[in-house]
Amino acid sequence: MPTIIIEGPKADVETKRELVRRITNVVREIYKVHHVSVVIHENEPENVGVDGELLADIIARRKG
Amino acid sequence: MPTIIIEGPKADVETKRELVRRITNVVREIYKVHHVSVVIHENEPENVGVDGELLADIIARRKG
Amino acid sequence: MPTIIIEGPKADVETKRELVRRITNVVREIYKVHHVSVVIHENEPENVGVDGELLADIIARRKG
Amino acid sequence: MPTIIIEGPKADVETKRELVRRITNVVREIYKVHHVSVVIHENEPENVGVDGELLADIIARRKG
Amino acid sequence: MPTIIIEGPKADVETKRELVRRITNVVREIYKVHHVSVVIHENEPENVGVDGELLADIIARRKG
Amino acid sequence: MPTIIIEGPKADVETKRELVRRITNVVREIYKVHHVSVVIHENEPENVGVDGELLADIIARRKG
């Protein structure tokens, strides 16, 4: 039974509802299984590093 | 040194204390090791997908 | 940048190609991001437990 | 539905069968749930670091 | 593209900035890659088990 | 006790030895702890997706 762990940003419930629905459909179809688990980890931008920088700093710099 | 990552629901400290104690005992006995790490991720029901639905929606539907 | 970790079964390269393509599209669209990482862990049936049983044993029992 | 990820050593199928059975029982009892997923990652000693050393080197040193 | 998941304690933003910067440098140099993702999971002491005990209890006991 | 999970490429033992040594030093220094666990997952290029493509296909395309 595939388990999908999503390391993603904060999101509202409707976004997570759609994410679970659509990812489950893709996984079901491709792996030809019924039961699929999804776990969404919502990570603050200051807990994510992209190429050596905190995502929070990248976002702040873009907002200038 | 085995590390056990638990993707589970919210729980009170006594529950987590027992979870760590008993899972460590099982892992120690079976793998014949002493040092065991456990990390508990407490996931809100709206961050868990079960067969395409948010666990939060499944719980809400059952409460009718 | 979302990272998706897939704990799934063994699969051939074409299956994984499609899995990455379609999961990335869903994640891009929903999170409105461009960069998405996917890591596929291929787990043998004897390394997966479902409700207390090894998936390998469940499969063997179904084959009777 | 709790998912338990075990980062452990290589093990034979009987060991993994018992691990899944007993860990599932503990998780079921404590979280009061029925469905539990377990994923066992078997890691070679040269892929595990303990306090700065490869487990493979620690084992080799102990064998002297 | 390597992804590093850090299961660590609570930390302030400056600590996480340095962690991301220095871990990315090590990973870049050793794997000879440019793009590196880091995800920091900040775990409360009562969500971490060390050799069968909650880290929260170990800390409390040391404070006596 | 921090646990670092590295989702990276195949690597030889000397590379992994250095990775564990240097990452542990960074984590020890920054978190001011002694015990650090590292788990290295070696992922084949066909098990890694980067922006919708298999890393294996990106590598093949670059080799032309």
Automatic annotation (TrEMBL), chains A, B, C, D, E, F:
Pfam families from the UniProt entry: Tautomerase (PF01361)
All copies of domain 4-oxalocrotonate tautomerase-like, residue ranges: 2-57
Taxonomic lineage from the root: Archaea, Methanobacteriati, Methanobacteriota, Thermococci, Thermococcales
Gene3D superfamilies membership: Macrophage Migration Inhibitory Factor (3.30.429.10)
GO molecular function, one term: isomerase activity
Provenance organism: Thermococcus radiotolerans
Sorted UniProt keywords: Isomerase
Protein name stated in the entry: 4-oxalocrotonate tautomerase
Leader sequence residues: none
Superkingdom, taxonomy of origin: Archaea
UniProt KW GTP-binding keyword: no
